[in-house]
Amino acid sequence: MRAAILAVGSELLGTERLDTNSLLLTAQLERFGVVLCRKAVVGDELEELGGLLGELIGAAELVLVTGGLGPTADDLTRQAVATALGRRLIESAEIGADIEAKFASFGMRMPEVNRRQAEVIEGAEVLANRRGTAPGLRIDHERGTLFLFPGVPHELEAMVAGALVPWLERHAGGPPREERLLKVACVPESTAEETLAPAYEEFGTKAIGLLASAGELQVRLTARGGAAGRGGLDRLEQRVAELMGDTVFTRRPGETLEAVVGGLLGAAGYTVATAESCTGGLVAERLTRVAGSSLWFVGSAVTYADRLKVELLGIDVELLERHGAVSREVAEAMATGVRERLSSDYGLAITGIAGPGGGTEEKPVGTVHVALAGPANGSSAHRRLRLPGDRRRVRRLTSQWALDLLRRELLAAGGGARPA
């Protein structure tokens, strides 16, 4: 089966809005072995939209369209598809009542313009949208099938799971691709490539893919072929996990490093407090994204000024003068100080130079010290980092290294058991 994706919206032609919906759709097509032959973005212009739809319908048996299903005058997808297929648009009283009820549930009156969203292309199957007001549509025609999805990502995600995936299971014509994911913290892509060389030799290069971002590497494993494919994938996953060791922090696609750290803290009954300089509270913010963090996160001290390092964390003035704020000694003192002042089991501290200015020959931009003070007889850990990139990237990388330092210490304290 050949497929095409069309993202509709003039905002996608600019620089401020990314077309992430196409990535989600592409992942599902790849999973079921569907060949993606075209991918396009078009603005809210009826003539251009209609012309491009005609091209894609002629090129692919399956066309997936996102966006343009809203209530405003520039939402033209339904009209363009109806014209391209030579079909009528019919207003559905049932859909209109459902949209009106959704507004009423929020104590709001439905604007009349939202009745546009109740228009259905003749012969289409309506796809329920439980996260928004615009229903999707599936239209079978003589040359194939069209899916029309809303452009709001979280609405699309639910509709893909509820409508597109079951359709692909019935029509794609072959066993779906099995996938596994291992997330790795603070390992460069090139280092991981070398580490995984034995797995490449044993299982082939096509089964393993690497996707790098700041301080995180996703190792994607794939296989096709039903139960036999799953068996080979099990062996591949086990081999990759052995090679990457404790750099793997999770195998759950939606789980973040901060969530893993929170889980380890909660399971052990420990608490943590942070003292941050160059990251300005970023580590604390990431930790408190995790639901239930109040059980194990005590608080944070953001101490940019040396005066506050002294007053809030109890750092010795002489230590600051002798070693400078960006030093191992001060980082360790910050970790100990925040642990004692906030009465937590662990104190996690960061001090560094995020840039773009402030660096010296001895301590260039990107120099960061991360320290951890723990409950076991005043135990401590330290990392000196030299991080590349602009200010934003240095701060993000620093927060990742800090959280990973805490994760590793918690694993060591718990006997080395890693979450699945």
Q: How far apart are the first and last residues' alpha carbons, in Å?
A: 36 Å
* Low-confidence sequence ranges: 415-420
- Structural class of the secondary elements? alpha/beta
Strand order of the largest sheet: 2-1-3-8-7-6
Approximately how much beta-strand content do the residues carry?
15-25%
Q: How many DSSP helices?
A: 14
CATH topology of the largest domain: Molybdenum Cofactor Biosythetic Enzyme, Chain A
CATH class of the largest domain: Alpha Beta
According to CATH, the homologous superfamily of the largest domain is: MoaB/Mog-like domain
Count of separate structural domains: 3
- The count of β-strands is 17
Overall pLDDT metric: 93
- The coarse silhouette is elongated
CATH architecture of the largest domain: 3-Layer(aba) Sandwich
Helix content: 40-55%
What Rg do the Cα atoms give? 27 Å
Characterize the main sheet.
Answer: 6 strands, mixed
